[in-house]
Amino acid sequence: MARVTRRRFLSASAAASSALALGAWVNVAPAQESKSPNEKLNLAGVGTTGRAGANLNELAYENLVCMADVDSDKLDQAAVKFSETRKYRDFRDMLEKEGDKIDAVVVGTPDHTHAPAAAMALRMGKHVYCEKPLTHTVVEARTLSTLAKEKKLVTQMGNQIHAGDNYRRVVEAIQGGSIGEVDEVHVWAGAIYTGATFTTNTTAPKNLDWNLWLGPAAERPYSEGVHPFTWRKYWDYGTGSLGDFGCHYMDLPHWALELRGPSSVEASGTPYDPVSCPGYCLAKYEYPARGKFPACKLFWYDSGKQPELLTTLKHSRVKPETWKSGVLFVGSKGMLLSSYGDHFLFPEEKFTAYKAPPQTIAKSLGHHREWTTAIRTGSPTLSNFDYAGALTEAVLLGTVAYRHGSKIEWDSENLKITNAPAAQKWLHKEYRKGWTL
Fold this sequence. Notes:
Elements: H1 7-10, E1 42-46, H2 51-58, E2 63-68, H3 72-79, E3 86-88, H4 91-98, E4 104-107, H5 114-123, E5 127-131, H6 138-151, E6 155-158, H7 165-175, E7 182-189, H8 210-214, H9 240-249, H10 251-256, E8 264-269, E9 281-287, E10 296-302, E11 326-331, E12 335-338, E13 343-346, H11 367-377, H12 385-404, E14 408-411, E15 416-417
Parallel strand pairs: 1-2, 1-4, 2-3, 4-5, 5-6, 7-10
Antiparallel strand pairs: 7-11, 8-9, 8-14, 9-10, 11-12, 12-13, 14-15
Helix pairs in contact: 5-6, 6-12, 9-12
């Protein structure tokens, strides 16, 4: 059994279903006790290796006061670099004991423990950087974005490509009308996360606290191979290819077209398995008109599936059908194909004299430095929890539609599926005793 939740962790439980409409809010107010430009921020790390370790390394110019990891081997590995940093196994212990010594928290655990750690930090008044997808459930995403707004804290989700120069130039091109009005987008990613099964005939290695690793997830015996990475295959801990890469690739159309909550989502794929994420997932999102932008359809493909439209595109410098991942905008005057690092306009002959629009989005300081600078100065973070929360909600609604098995109609303001009450259960999950959002 998990032990009793820490006193501070229990305080002020937020009902994510509160009808707080999401607006275009960003973090612009510096912390009340903001640091001087030359004073280091005091950070706490939740998770220490993998993506968590990469984040801590990127932030090594600040002061890592403490770090927590359920795997003692991983913790010791991180301590080689951060030798002066205090070590914990349970992030709840760490945040309670170190709360008055830290300014901000970096969360890099598996998806199912993102929200409990980030919510605890936000309620304590700490700025938060959290890996993508921001959360494991739709309700968790709304909870974090609401908390960040209420507390006026500086936040950033770890979809690092958002800071890339190419994405910024694509946003400018789309919003500048380079391909006309866009009412269709195709997004695909090649990663495959499926084939998950639980085992019960092995015991957890001594370095791993399996009970803490489970966190809020359902209690079950140790299952071999879940830790440290194949957890992404399991619904209990991850959300498959869509959950992993949606916050990277759907980020670009969400940014360029100012998308928020879809009006409906439908999805299909391999037959539903209550344990394992699907062998592939295809999803169709419909978004209402937004200001100058018309209503839009977004099509998602993963695990090797691609839009047929790619095979019709010809260009002297690229073969679109060979792209394992990408984004294709379809506009009234042409198409734009983008990867992480490059983009191309179609038909090629129409855009031979194309001149990119003026650059209106400044070059990023770096995804992590953008966050730490904002803590000091109040400058914006472009993947803050308001933006990232809405993006994560949309991504996860694709998994909800897939698990439900039919189209869902979405009331974003009220966090409600209006046409299928039975699908509402997929918006959140029951937390194990001792854990809370």
